[in-house]
Amino acid sequence: MTAPRRIVLVGFMGSGKSTVGPRVAEALEWIFLDVDHEVEARNGASVAELFERKGQAWFRGAEAEVAREFLERDGVVVATGGGWGAADGRLDTVPPGTVSVWLKVSPEVAVRRARSQPGQRPLLAVDDPLEAARALLLRREARYARADHTVDTTDRSPDDVTRRIVEAIRSS
Ligand code: S3P
Hints:
Strands 2-3-1-4-5 form a five-stranded parallel sheet. 47% of the residues lie in helices and 15% in strands. The chain has helices at residues 17-28, 35-43, 47-54, 56-70, 107-114, 129-144, 158-170, and strands at residues 6-11, 31-34, 76-79, 98-104, 149-152. The longest helix is centred in the C-terminal third of the chain and has 16 residues, at 129-144. The protein contains seven helices and five strands; from the N terminus they run βαβαααββααβα. By secondary structure, it is of the alpha/beta class. It is globular and about 45 Å long. The structure holds shikimate-3-phosphate. Shikimate-3-phosphate binds next to helix 1. Residues 13, 17-18, 36, 47, 81-83, 120-123 line the site of shikimate-3-phosphate.
């Protein structure tokens, strides 16, 4: 296999992609890049505002474009939004040298963590977020599971998750 040149973190909202991503980057002396933040910065609006003003389909196109650009770079850890890795065939078409890691999380913990950043999770801003999370996860899990590695973050600290990802990369 080609030596790892970049990491792409996929997984559900609240799985820890943006929390552990910078730590993994620091450990490897690589650069951390966050797709959602870049889409927000380029458009001067939050994810929730962009969903409302331009629609989810537009957002999916914007995040795909930013992720494509980020995955052309070397020495980077890329955190994607939860929808990116859930698209059909996406993890089968990443450039050579990309190691994908699925950060797995239970719907209960995802909803609890997501509550702290409501502006970024319009799909969970519904009457019953737990039900919404369960339904979405059910539809998405098989796609996330295409990743090269899986780390369950449900009951793990960010440091523990970081260590496991770094170990997985070093043995890739
Ligand atoms: C989404 C996840 C969010 C953000 C948007 C849609 C999803 O990113 O891209 O709210 O469809 O799962 P995080 O996974 O960083 O919360």
